[in-house]
């Protein structure tokens, strides 16, 4: 009898030590570079080119090259402002629809090499990529497929020209390119013709040289357009999308689909929210006093980063080749406000208790440990679960942050947040759908010592981050 007891105790101890396996991935999952990209959260867009000098939004392609002549271009200034504002990368319009190339593209005669700037010896992509490297931020490019200057546009030869154009951007001369932006606009070329793009070839070309680059378009393949230019991702926002039968541009999925993604979508195509700090995409004098307010920018932060999307905020350099003080001052206010709001996580010191846990290594304490790769997960078959945070005292907050461990897919379909009232009753303070990489839910300001999150998922939920914050700066509510 004694022996049996000892054996049983030994087996139990062994079972306790047995490694608990992580949950299986669910649905489409991101590539490692897509996870790294999502963690960037905020990047800067820089629209710059002939339009900066003409005031047009869409240049005609017939602008004389000598129009491009910034008096004091300083990409070091752009990069240091971007870094100070919290952006992790800059994406520049290497070529916009007018076809003018900000680098000496050998297959074009409409470039900086034909301009008076630096006697035709300048290269904005070189200056910016060097400046980004110096600041330790990433460098990306927008190369418009639509070209209103190239005479081949509308013929199969244009696809060859465009492939060579991509090659000169990606072949390593500008270091690593983290994102390639394929704009969806596809109008007519100088000959009145429209182009049939060879997308598979364009993608192959980029990946040949920049295998980890994230390619943006209406249909990815790296990330997708969010469906509007006002800075608002869907309150429901799946990072998965069905692209079968769709193409970028006129053949794109409907904008509301782009805004929310597709539940159970076949491909991991997370949303990128591109929006300008000014009314237009390009700088113009008349908009120096129309830079978006701090409150507007904070609202955009909540409806992009706070809704499982990356924010790509356009800050267009002026005709001197510098970011105007009106924009840089606002960016510094924006950064200071974000730092202030998210400085104190009021769930620090809390104890987390879950209705179910998978076992050793997957407990709810992982949610609060600040480690991206450790997460709370439930047992297989348990897709509905709650986690209660016993706070270190009474806390007052109006923002709740939750993160899902996306390397295993986007699994949560809905959740509610409750706070314990003074009467000892749980009170629902939010009812939402998706979480994804990061969700920041604005709630009415509340004081409580316990918060409970109730989750319903398609597979065992995997939650790796939680926070409670008090935002006294923005008036954002939704
Ligand atoms: C659009 C373009 O037509 C605009 O000019 C701008 O570049 C914006 C980011 O994308 O499709």
Please, could you describe this protein's structure?
There is one protein chain. The chain is of the alpha/beta class and 478 residues long. The protein has two domains: 32-341, Alpha-Beta Barrel (TIM Barrel), CATH 3.20.20.80; 351-469, Sandwich (Jelly Rolls), CATH 2.60.120. It is built from ten helices and 17 strands. Mean pLDDT is 95; it is low at 1-16. The strands form three sheets. An eight-stranded parallel beta barrel has the order 1-2-3-4-5-6-9-10, surrounded by five helices. It has helices spanning 2-17, 32-40, 50-54, 75-84, 124-135, 156-170, 199-209, 255-260, 294-303, 325-341, and strands at residues 42-46, 89-95, 138-143, 177-181, 214-217, 223-225, 240-241, 267-268, 271-276, 309-314, 351-354, 376-377, 384-404, 412-420, 426-432, 439-457, 462-469. Helix 4 (75-84) runs parallel beside helix 5 (124-135) and helix 6 packs parallel to helix 7 (199-209). Beta-L-fucopyranose binds at residues 57-58, 183-185, 274, 281. The site of beta-L-fucopyranose has 7 residues, from loops.
Unique ligands: beta-L-fucopyranose
- Report the structural category: alpha/beta
CATH class of the largest domain: Alpha Beta
How many individual β-strands?
17
Low-confidence sequence ranges: 1-16
* CATH fold assignment of the largest domain: TIM Barrel
CA radius of gyration is: 25 Å
Helix content: 10-25%
- How much β-strand is present in the residues? 15-25%
Describe the protein's topology.
Blueprint: H1 2-17, H2 32-40, E1 42-46, H3 50-54, H4 75-84, E2 89-95, H5 124-135, E3 138-143, H6 156-170, E4 177-181, H7 199-209, E5 214-217, E6 223-225, E7 240-241, H8 255-260, E8 267-268, E9 271-276, H9 294-303, E10 309-314, H10 325-341, E11 351-354, E12 376-377, E13 384-404, E14 412-420, E15 426-432, E16 439-457, E17 462-469
Parallel strand pairs: 1-2, 1-10, 2-3, 3-4, 4-5, 5-6, 6-9, 9-10
Antiparallel strand pairs: 7-8, 11-13, 12-17, 13-16, 13-17, 14-15, 14-16
Helix pairs in contact: 4-5, 6-7
The structure holds beta-L-fucopyranose (FUL).
């Amino acid at each position: 009898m004694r022996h049996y007891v000892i054996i049983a105790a030994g087996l139990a101890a062994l079972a306790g030590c047995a490694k608990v396996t992580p949950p299986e991935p669910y649905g489409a999952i991101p590539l490692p570079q897509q996870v790294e990209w999502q963690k960037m959260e905020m990047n800067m867009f820089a629209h710059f080119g002939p339009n900066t000098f003409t005031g047009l939004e869409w240049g005609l392609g017939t602008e004389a090259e000598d129009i491009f002549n910034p008096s004091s271009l300083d990409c070091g200034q752009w990069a240091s402002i971007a870094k100070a504002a919290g952006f992790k990368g800059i994406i520049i319009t290497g070529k916009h629809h007018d076809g003018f190339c900000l680098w000496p593209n050998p297959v074009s005669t409409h470039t900086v090499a034909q301009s008076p700037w630096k006697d035709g010896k300048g290269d904005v992509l070189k200056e910016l990529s060097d400046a980004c490297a110096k600041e330790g931020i990433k460098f990306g490019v927008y190369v418009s497929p639509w070209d209103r200057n190239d005479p081949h546009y509308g013929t199969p030869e244009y696809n060859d020209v465009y492939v060579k154009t991509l090659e000169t951007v990606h072949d390593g001369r500008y270091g690593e390119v983290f994102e390639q932006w394929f704009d969806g606009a596809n109008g007519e070329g100088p000959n009145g013709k429209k182009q049939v793009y060879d997308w598979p070839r364009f993608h192959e070309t980029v990946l040949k040289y920049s295998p980890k680059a994230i390619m943006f378009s209406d249909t990815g393949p790296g990330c997708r357009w969010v469906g509007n230019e006002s800075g608002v991702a869907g309150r429901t926002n799946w990072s998965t999308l069905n692209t079968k039968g769709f193409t970028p541009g006129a053949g794109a999925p409907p904008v509301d689909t782009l805004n929310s993604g597709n539940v159970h979508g076949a491909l991991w195509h997370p949303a990128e929210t591109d929006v300008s700090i000014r009314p237009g995409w390009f700088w113009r004098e008349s908009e120096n006093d129309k830079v978006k307010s701090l409150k507007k920018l904070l609202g955009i932060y909540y409806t992009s980063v706070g809704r499982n999307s990356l924010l790509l905020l356009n800050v267009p350099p002026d005709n001197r080749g510098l970011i105007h003080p009106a924009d840089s001052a606002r960016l510094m206010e924006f950064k200071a406000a974000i730092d202030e709001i998210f400085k104190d996580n009021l769930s620090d010191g809390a104890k987390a208790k879950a209705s179910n846990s998978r076992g050793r290594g997957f407990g709810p304490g992982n949610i609060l440990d600040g480690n991206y790769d450790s997460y709370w997960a439930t047992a297989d078959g348990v897709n509905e679960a709650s986690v209660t945070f016993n706070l270190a005292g009474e806390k007052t907050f109006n923002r709740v942050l939750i993160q899902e461990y996306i390397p295993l897919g986007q699994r949560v379909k809905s959740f509610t947040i409750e706070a314990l009232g003074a009467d000892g009753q749980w009170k629902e303070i939010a009812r939402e759908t998706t979480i994804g990489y990061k969700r920041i839910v604005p709630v009415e300001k509340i004081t409580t010592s316990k918060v409970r999150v109730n989750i319903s998922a398609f597979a065992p939920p995997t939650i790796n981050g939680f926070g409670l914050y008090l935002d006294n700066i923005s008036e954002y509510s939704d």
